[in-house]
Amino acid sequence: MSWVIRVEDLVKEFEDFRLEIPELEIGEGEVLGVLGESGAGKSVFIHVLKGLDDYEPDEGRILYRVGMCPECGWIERPEFIGEQCPKCEKGKLEEEVVDLWGLSDTERRRFRKRIAIMFQRTFALYEEQTVLENVMEALEEAGYSGEEAVQRAVDLIEMVQLEHRITHLARDLSGGEKQRVVLIRQLAKKPIVFLADEPTGTLDPETADIVHKALREGVKEEGITMVIR
């Protein structure tokens, strides 16, 4: 199995906290569960992997192995190296090893758009758009269009059992329903990596089961690498 993420001599310190990970490789399509006591640094690790501001390592590197288009800069998972770029359809995807925290702020912000992240209660939705419109927007960003986009959106909405809410505005959904739409929006973008920071921590057991099942099926179907706590 080829690697997608490599952690080298990582150290991240706060006033009363120190996270150390000497070495770690996460393979393509692998699902890695992050376990530990409260305050052990699980969320910090996920935030460092995402490249979020204020989480720059004090020491070490986070490397991503990806396929990158030399023509338009589009980033894909390693399995697509050598194939035509799906974004510009001009260049072929070339293997690149990217030092996430060695990038400029602008480059890092662009790169992390290809890294999905899902929190407990952060509902990044278009509140005045319907469930279908929210999912369609994410699919269009991933390159889908027309009838193919509509069918894929319906499939994703059915996967999280929200077909009865497909024409409802996002602002009218419950917290659990919003979390399901957030999930399928992230899956729709076909990220290179999916980071999940307690995505079901505030959900009722039934909704949590739906989200967990959709996460497992979604990343397995697309071969997406996932880190989850």
TrEMBL record:
InterPro entries: ABC_transporter-like_ATP-bd, ABC_transporter-like_CS, P-loop_NTPase
Any single Pfam family the record assigns to this protein: ABC_tran
A Gene Ontology molecular function term of the record: ATP hydrolysis activity
Domain annotation ABC transporter: ranges: 5-228
Coiled coil regions, renumbered to chain: none
Gene Ontology annotations of biological process type: organic phosphonate catabolic process
Protein name per UniProt: Putative methyl coenzyme M reductase system component A2
Organism classification: Archaea, Methanobacteriati, Methanobacteriota, Methanomada group, Methanopyri
